[in-house]
Amino acid sequence: MTHEAGDHPLRSDELALIDRYWRAANYISVGQIYLLDNPLLREPLQPGHVKPRLLGHWGTTPGLNFIYAHLNRVIARRDLDMIYICGPGHGGPGMVANTWLEGSYSEIYPDVPLSEEGLRRLFRQFSFPGGVPSHAAPETPGSIHEGGELGYALMHAFGAAFDNPELTVACVIGDGEAETGALAASWHSNKFLNPVHDGAVLPILHLNGYKIANPTVMGRMADEDLERLFLGLGWEPHFVSGEDPATMHRQMAATLDSVVTRIHTIQDSARDNRDALNMPRWPMIVLRSPKGWTGPKEVDGKKVEGFWRSHQVPVANARADASHRELLEDWMRSYRPQELFDADGRPHADLLTLAPTGQRRMGLNPHANGGLLKRELKLPDYKTLAVGVPAPGAPVAEATRVMGKYLAEVIRLNADARNFRLMGPDETASNRLDAVFEVTDRVWMQDIEPFDTNLAADGRVMEILSEHLCQGWLEGYLLTGRHGFFSCYEAFIHIVDSMFNQHAKWLKVSRELGWRKPIASLNYLLTSHVWRQDHNGFSHQDPGFVDLVANKKADIVRIYLPPDANCLLWVTDHCLRTYDRINVIVAGKQPSAQWLDMAAAARHCDVGIGAWDWAGTVAGDEEPDIVMACAGDVPTLETLAAVDLLRLALPRLKVRVVNVVDLMTLQSEYQHPHGLSDEHFDALFTTDKPVVFAYHGYPYLIHRLAYQRRNHANLHVHGFQEEGTTTTPFDMAVLNSIDRFHLALAALKWLPDTGADGAALEANLNARLAAHTAYVREHGEDMPGIREWNWTHGR
Amino acid sequence: MTHEAGDHPLRSDELALIDRYWRAANYISVGQIYLLDNPLLREPLQPGHVKPRLLGHWGTTPGLNFIYAHLNRVIARRDLDMIYICGPGHGGPGMVANTWLEGSYSEIYPDVPLSEEGLRRLFRQFSFPGGVPSHAAPETPGSIHEGGELGYALMHAFGAAFDNPELTVACVIGDGEAETGALAASWHSNKFLNPVHDGAVLPILHLNGYKIANPTVMGRMADEDLERLFLGLGWEPHFVSGEDPATMHRQMAATLDSVVTRIHTIQDSARDNRDALNMPRWPMIVLRSPKGWTGPKEVDGKKVEGFWRSHQVPVANARADASHRELLEDWMRSYRPQELFDADGRPHADLLTLAPTGQRRMGLNPHANGGLLKRELKLPDYKTLAVGVPAPGAPVAEATRVMGKYLAEVIRLNADARNFRLMGPDETASNRLDAVFEVTDRVWMQDIEPFDTNLAADGRVMEILSEHLCQGWLEGYLLTGRHGFFSCYEAFIHIVDSMFNQHAKWLKVSRELGWRKPIASLNYLLTSHVWRQDHNGFSHQDPGFVDLVANKKADIVRIYLPPDANCLLWVTDHCLRTYDRINVIVAGKQPSAQWLDMAAAARHCDVGIGAWDWAGTVAGDEEPDIVMACAGDVPTLETLAAVDLLRLALPRLKVRVVNVVDLMTLQSEYQHPHGLSDEHFDALFTTDKPVVFAYHGYPYLIHRLAYQRRNHANLHVHGFQEEGTTTTPFDMAVLNSIDRFHLALAALKWLPDTGADGAALEANLNARLAAHTAYVREHGEDMPGIREWNWTHGR
């Protein structure tokens, strides 16, 4: 629907004020892109006033400023708690301009005060070495959203709104971003927002019609189709469309009044009648305004305003070319700076009456600096959930099922605080975390049938078949000061590789800014992993996400491969206590042997790596003939079994078993804070003995982490070799040479001389491999006992 | 709209035949999931007839079979050229069942004939070690689409339809997949399909209501909202909904008749009136049918049919539990196998009259084995486009701009064949490939304004701001036998990491199947790379995609880092001649020094690595004191400049410069077909001298590739250290210690003794670094001349 200006008339003084505020933001935006000096145009523009490198994006900015000014008006008038998510990241100048105007910028960065000198610095620093980036970024006050890679604005907005009932998240989505997959899926987030306990998201789809060099798909769609599309998606679209400023101000003000009222009506109605929850039809705004609005209509005879040529820097040669410089000066003066700033270069006092004050200013809203609001989770005593391990290998347990009990306790203990959520792409039960459904449900706002299970309008588990949404919702939730976990099939976490990258970059920069307070870590459980994709096959087998993770700044990332349930408990508990990190846990869900009792698991995980004397044939400092190392649950089992085979056949062989939980211990202490000292590493891995290392993922990662170690030349890593199919668990190990037989064969290969016993063992191992292969091809299942570990029988 | 059965009445014999065909496919699907033996149920089921591991997915399968049977009817009746894309990959049993029924399976796999023994083998091999996967996969006849990771069905369908005017691609999309971002964006593909030159895509959105353990978002949407949604997206939705087979058959037949007629009307109209092209409203089908349709209604008292419990194996314990086995047997007999198969176990002859014959069978349609149809590209003589290089470093050129001229020629030469497309997320011009617009346009089916540039209904360039769509369209295009290139900002290619993974897996498996013919390689140009993101910043700086690529099977992947325009020309030409590979080219778009004339570039690139004697101070086999190696355009410039600094300060120093174009040469010849022999490697890198290696990306990759080399311990790699921001190009290099000063300092560090001259140089280098930093912070641009290379001046 379109609101006629007459619906909610804007008084003429309000109209004048809002237009003046908008002009001020536009002026400051252009100034950032262009000027080194002469910020108030007190003298005619000289070449030296113009930056030598013009780097910035004008096209989207006036629309963003228009929205910001109008949001200010409704915030101030209704005392709203609101943040602004700026999807068009190229609108960095607009976000900076507005937060400076409202005063929040100078409160955070006192060296950029509200004065002519402040304005000069503000202009100069933009897209300038040592200055601020051209996108909305961690440096930008009021932002929880990096404006670099597009697609994630709306999911971040929803993440921020969950469990923040008083918050309204205004989310501007550019028509470029609207073409991405992540954004296209995000519209369905309305099916997961509970009007009683969550806040509101107000999407503002900003159609300025063009991307870098093309029209946009939605920009060229008819209003009728857009209306049907968004109605179909469950929204109530409101259109604001045009280019005449006065008309547009009236339309936008009326529309905002109307949609905010509608939001409050929905919330009041839901909160008064808590049982009758139907999915509300939330309002949204479709804003059509020209790209590069109020900028030069034409440059060098070519169309600029309302076209893609206004995307970046419309007047490209303003330093060297006098006519371009004149065009720029005319453009800037068209905003009438004399009406905007006082003699000291401060915004006129009456101008500021438009904006809210204090923490209602969007640049200082604490939700956008979530660490300020973060409360520690109440965590259960994980030891009470430990699996009893009377002897290594004796009990069998499903590691993630035990973890699920822990997470259920976390949910129970923090139910009142409503600050923890569990995300998963329809895999929470498949990943065996279903204990959580004893204490909570999956959020579901559409109809619920009588036979449905564990669905409710209110719940702590969020499931949708979109890894993007799971990741994006969680990011928004964490960035606004809450906690969470994302469980995912290991192979498909690659779907969000790029989102992981961007979040890691956000954390890296945030940590360099004193005013950004630490937020809870982003925790991943990767399960249904490469070695146990029995129901699926090659497409579901990829352990390479951690390779990507290891590229990121050492301060930010951690990778854990707990070998059993008690280690997984310790690691889960540990990760939930950390902040400003990305923790990746890889653990299996299938029944498997347990190795360490809780006390031993805690000691082992606390160091992150250690020799398991009970599994080898040497103790303490005694020098082994060979080190058999392992990381990951399946590699650990196979390594221990290989040692068993070696021990029985070569009774005098001295074997040390080393298990790695924290992969970063393998790097040197200079590369990573968890890196072992060289002394410690050498003590475990020796300086000259062969090391056969069974690793969960692609073997290169181990080489890459450990290449600086003294004994690296003797390190022989077995891992996933991209040989996968639908087969038995043991056969998967065999196909990739990570099974006990291949590991024992590798030991024989690298040991100096194992004599006749070695030769006999080699023949035996090869025969057993052949027998295995014949058996599984015949019977379709693993040979009985072939996946067991026999140490105790051998004793 | 919903078609009443009366619209196009199905005769009762047609109804009976189609139902019988459907029952046959369902029977064969269940048999694959469950049976080892007794395929025709000639005797009561015994435990030994049931597989020990029940791995497969029933839920989606009956719906897929229903669609397949009905498509067979319209193909046969109208002699359609049609392929079937099975989005719900879990429907593997259905695809196998149908291709066996129609006879195409046995033609490809003669060891699985149309007989009782063939049926036994068909059942046994499914999800069985050494058998076939549980998803649609390369092994599945008629498939171009792996059914593992969800999201890409519709983009593959469009890729297949482009430039195939006689083809209709039926694309089944599950309601699980419909929640993914990639699929959500795909609906807009209709804005890029030209009814004159392209074929048709018929999406069939299959709403069976449930995922693994949850309802689906679209399954719970009201028909009214679905209708609005798809109308808004530009489609014409037709609904088929219910569970009574006879009614559903009538509805589906009438609907298919209607939509096929509609498709032909659109095509005829467009092809008769070529100038009046408006975007047509193509038909699509929304099919609502119960999950696990015709399977057990309940098992152990719990709802199964029409619920998520039918997702996998509805009767879980049929081997061990007699009551479960009885349930299974009743279920299978409910399809009345005696009416489906003759005494030899062949499908009854009259049953087969429903299916088309020969290559009209969807299992044997050659479009689904694209290598059969692939024609070689006509390629221009790249030498005619070479940049003249009178002396190394003398000319300046933009490498990708030169490549653009080459691609324009490729497009011109193959214009009539219509078998080459260029994909990019709105970045073709930004990436300076705009020469292509001299010979073609961007495809655009929505309205075109008079001031728009290079848009047309017919064009070879496809741009949408979705890396997913660029990748998916191209995959579909290649898999059906055509050629293409995807140019992308380097950082954002991570958005399709997971799609790359899946395509690499598809190629790996396809190459193991004799009947799948080679398809053209998937070629990436990654540009606007980490070192020259002047307009953006940290969010746009990530060179890690190649790390992911290097994890894949060596046979499949290649990574090229051409140092200049002529090398890029050679590499581009080379990549377009290859097949069944994924080629990644990383090259800059900014003006930069050129090093090799065309002949030298060809020699250098052909080997992929080589010493540049002209850039060092030793020639041929003379042993250097140090090797300065480089890979990538910016690292090459900085390395050559560092050598210049060293040479001037330390005139007796012997330096060899090694440049790497083909990154895989660094691996050993045992690891990769392009790997250098150890002798060759040692001859270049020495066995004991320091090597300072300036690499374009994350330095670990070089260590990982070269860790087995003799001189690895002396290899010191400089690369991206995740230090990025909006700054000058040279400052980016300095922040990551990959600039000439840091490289020369590294050489001094690792050289044994450079005496007083070395100390003086060190002081000089540090001073110049400090001067640089002060200058850029003051002036916002690089010091004049600081990015030049001065060798010729020094001579």
Automatic annotation (TrEMBL), chains A, B:
Q: Which residues form the Xylulose 5-phosphate/Fructose 6-phosphate phosphoketolase N-terminal domain?
A: 12-372
The entry's keywords: Lyase, Thiamine pyrophosphate
- The answer to whether the entry has keyword Iron is no
Entry's EC annotation: 4.1.2.-
- Cross-referenced InterPro entries, in alphabetical order? Phosphoketolase, THDP-binding, Transketo_C/PFOR_II, Xul5P/Fru6P_PKetolase, Xul5P/Fru6P_PKetolase_C, Xul5P/Fru6P_PKetolase_CS, Xul5P/Fru6P_PKetolase_N, Xul5P/Fru6P_PKetolase_ThDP_BS
PROSITE patterns the UniProt entry points to: PHOSPHOKETOLASE_1 (PS60002), PHOSPHOKETOLASE_2 (PS60003)
Cofactor(s) needed for function? thiamine diphosphate
| Record-linked CDD domains | TPP_PK
Q: Which Pfam families match?
A: XFP, XFP_C, XFP_N
**Residue span(s) of domain Xylulose 5-phosphate/Fructose 6-phosphate phosphoketolase C-terminal:** 589-791
**Top-rank taxon, per record:** Bacteria
Please give the SUPFAM superfamilies that the UniProt record associates with this protein: Thiamin diphosphate-binding fold (THDP-binding)
| Broad EC category | lyase
Family per similarity comment: Belongs to the XFP family.
Protein name per UniProt: Probable phosphoketolase
